[in-house]
């Protein structure tokens, strides 16, 4: 007796959005290889937009699947691990010295490990905080740095940014695989009422992003990366004070 065929289907809308994210990451690599660094950085930010949208659409429409989660991980690996590393490589690194290759490889590997850990802990992870710097935020710092420099200074003096590029790649890579907690912003802020002042602030932020997108986006994600470090330091100090008070009592 022949076994019945198993029909495998996927939800169209969220996976199409994920595919757009893959294309944005792929296009960022092509642009970087051809010397269009600003276009490459912008394409990475577009990949972030599609990455945020596909997950939200899947949750709102009830179309979350394991296939979608794995497909999203592949998209993130391309757009937020490989694309930013190659962008910064083509931007400043002209040789194939060992430290250059190690820096790029550390970033890509750290991003892949961060995504694999996220999937492995999906069932037990904290919904309010991320463990380690999210890979899209790390990619935004890398792409934002390139975008700001190209806009503010121009194509000259790129080699002077070589040490900064090494530092950004290695530090963001370490933060991605660290246990430092970062706020996830997963609460649905679209539900319920908000103060009028908050609406005004959000409107001003949108205006500033439109006027100075490179500076505002880079500054936001850079501060976000620092926020995890600051929160971690505060928590360590609180634990030390608690231990001292416990010993005294």
Question: Could you describe the 3D structure shown?
Answer:
By secondary structure, this protein is an all-alpha fold. It has a single domain, classed as Four Helix Bundle (Hemerythrin (Met), subunit A). Helices cover 73% and strands 2% of the residues. The chain is built from 8 helices and 2 strands. Strands 1-2 form a two-stranded antiparallel ribbon. Helix 2 packs antiparallel against helix 3 and helix 3 runs antiparallel to helix 4. It is globular. The mean pLDDT is 85.
Helix content: over 70%
- Largest beta-sheet details: 2 strands, antiparallel
The overall number of domains is: 1
Q: How are the strands of the largest sheet arranged?
A: 1-2
Give me the count of strands. 2
What's the total helix number? 8
Secondary structure class reads mainly alpha
Give, in order, the helices and strands. HHHHEHHEHH
Radius of gyration: 20 Å
* Mean pLDDT, all residues: 85
Reading off the top of the CATH hierarchy, the class is best stated as Mainly Alpha
Shape: globular
Low-pLDDT segments: none
Straight-line N-to-C gap: 76 Å
Question: In terms of quaternary structure, what is this?
Answer: single chain
Architecture per CATH nomenclature, i.e. the level-2 architecture? Up-down Bundle
Instruction: Kindly estimate the percentage of residues that lie in beta strands according to DSSP.
Output: under 5%
């Amino acid at each position: 007796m022949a076994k019945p065929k198993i029909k495998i289907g996927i939800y169209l809308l969220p996976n199409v959005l994920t595919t757009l994210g893959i294309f944005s990451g792929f296009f960022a690599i092509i642009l970087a290889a051809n010397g269009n660094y600003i276009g490459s950085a912008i394409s990475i930010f577009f990949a972030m937009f599609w990455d945020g949208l596909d997950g939200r659409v899947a949750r709102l429409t009830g179309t979350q699947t394991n296939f979608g989660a794995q497909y999203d991980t592949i998209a993130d690996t391309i757009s937020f691990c490989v694309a930013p590393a190659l962008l910064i490589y083509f931007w400043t690194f002209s040789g194939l010295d060992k430290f250059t290759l190690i820096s790029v490889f550390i970033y890509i590997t750290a991003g892949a490990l961060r995504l694999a850990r996220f999937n492995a802990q999906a069932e037990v992870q904290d919904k309010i905080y991320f463990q380690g710097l999210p890979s899209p935020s790390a990619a935004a710092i890398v792409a934002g740095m390139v975008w700001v420099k190209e806009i503010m200074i121009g194509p000259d003096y790129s080699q002077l940014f070589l040490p900064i590029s090494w530092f950004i790649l290695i530090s963001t890579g370490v933060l991605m695989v660290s246990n430092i907690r970062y706020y996830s912003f997963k609460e649905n802020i679209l539900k319920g009422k908000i103060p009028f002042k908050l609406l005004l602030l959000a409107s001003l932020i949108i205006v500033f992003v439109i006027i100075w997108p490179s500076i505002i986006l880079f500054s936001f994600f850079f501060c976000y990366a620092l926020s995890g470090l600051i929160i971690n330091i505060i928590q360590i100090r609180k634990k030390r004070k608690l231990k001292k008070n416990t010993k005294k009592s």
